[in-house]
Structures are given as structure tokens and as C-alpha cells.
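Lab notebook page, bench 4
Experiment: in silico fold of construct C2
Operator: M.H.
Input chain length: 325 residues
Purpose: comparison with the prior construct
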Amino acid sequence: MRRFALALALLATSPAAVLAQNQTNDLIQHVRTLMSANQLDSADLLLIKALASATERADSVIAYEWLAMLAFTRGSDSATRIAFHHVLQLDTTFQIPNLWQSAPRLAQLLEAERMELRPGILLTANEVEERPHRLSGPVLVYPADAARRRMRGRALIGMTIDTLGRVEERSIDFLVTPDSAMNAPLRTMLLASAFSPGRLHRRRVRTMIELAVDLDSGSLPSATSLVTLARARIAAHQTDSAFALLDQALDPGTRATEGEVVYARLVQGIAWAAAGRDTTAAAALDSGLAGYRRLTDRGVALAPFLKRLADSVRLARGPRGKRSR
């Protein structure tokens, strides 16, 4: 009964109630009387007649709207959505005033059907009820030259977050940037990040947002930390990001020690192997192992993790690795 009373109350205030001014309007008024008397089957038959007699789009909209209310009164969510489907095909802007406040469940059914008809809908952050926000992702890697210059500032980036919480690559737009050298690292970070999707009426929607990122390169990162981070990126199958880190580690401005260069070359070889570039990988590994041999021959004390890495590379390469000792 609550659904029944609610349906009548909502229809009394619906804009569609004043649109039809012909035979369809007379039939709808009779439907209202039948529904008030709880004669739902008779109301259903009369609504079918009203649809058959409709000559204007507005007439069909109000008839289908009443069919939706009738189905809602009977407790059939599926039939309610079917009726709303017809309404929205005729009028994409269709609304029932204050529906979310007075009948949240009915509002959910209407909006669910609206979204089904517009699956690729793209909204702005101001149009959604829940805005996307970054949940996780890699740290931002600063290029060596930006770190040397102690680059600081704020970047403002426009992008679209899809319904799975991922950044749509083609949507990335650098609106404000203190240093164009940061655009590529920022893009890499964003594409590897996870966001919460935007939501409208509890449904996920593609959402355009603007993200502000405060940049502060601080002190120059050590080559060891860069190579270690590159190993983590390789394990996560992010080889492009790993190569960028390794290039930074080997940049003269980073001032890598001989041991750090060996570390970088070995990991670089592993990265090339992961990318399917066997010849290039072999050259990098040969360089790393040769450097390792020179350091050990000189009695240079090396970190245990580097010894373990060199040993694992030699074992993995078999006889070839042994000849490089």
C-alpha cells in the first residue's frame, strides 16, 4: 500500500501530468481513478488503450510514466524499468521532481535505466555525487636534471577516470606544469595508479577531473635506490618505467659509484630480457659481470645483495655466465 499511495502522490506532481490535452489525457484521468480504487488490472488495460490512442510524444510519455508507477505499485522492479526505458527513449531529459527525497528506490530504478541507455556518459567532477580520488600507485620519479635543479612547483592535470578507476591515457592534459620535463614521469605515475571511480546515484560513471600534484624534487636520489625501484617495476611488468629509472641511475649527474654501475647494468640486462631483447640483454649482463669481476679482483667490498644478484645471473646464464667471471 505504501508504494501505491506513493505512486499516486508522485504522479499528481509530475510535469507529464499536464502535458496531454486530448483523448489520452481523458484516459489517463480514468486510470488515476481506477488506481485510486485499487483496480489495477483495469487500469493496466486502460493504459494499453491510452498508448494506442496517443498521437503526440507527450501523450506516450505520460502513458508510459503511469505504466511505470503501476508496475512499481505492484512491486515489479523489472516492469518498472521497462516502462521507464520507453519513457527515456521518448524524452531523455525526463525527471520526476524530488524523486530521490520522496522515493529513493523508484529514483534508483529510473536512474539505472537512464545509465543503461547512456553507458558511455562522461560527467565532470561537479556533476557526480562521489568524485574520483587516487587510491594507490607508484611514487613519482624525478628526472636527474630536475633533481639537480631542485625543481619545485604545482602541476595541474586534466584527465578522465573510467568506471574501473583507471586513467584514460588519451585524456591526460597538462594544464599547468612548472617544468615540461616532469610531464612524462607524471604520465607514467598516473597510468600506473588506481582511482576510485566517480559515482552518480550509486552507479559508476566516467568522470573528468583535474588533479593537482605538488612537485618537489628535493635531493638527488641515489643510484642504488633508483635501481632497486627499477627491479620492483620489472617484477610488476612495468619495463618502460624500469628503463627510465635505470637511465636516471646511469646518468652522470647521479654520480653512481662503480658498484652502483654494476648493479644498474645487471638489472638493465634483466629488464631487456623481460622485454624480449635477448642480444641487448646479453650485452648489458656481460658489461655488469665484467665490472663485477674487476671490482672483486681489486678487493673492493661489495654489498651482499649485489653479490647475490651477480651469482644468480651467472647461474641463470649457465656456461656463458661462468665464462664471464
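Observations: The chain has a mean pLDDT of 84. The CA atoms of residues 6 and 103 lie 8 Å apart.
Next step: discuss at group meeting.
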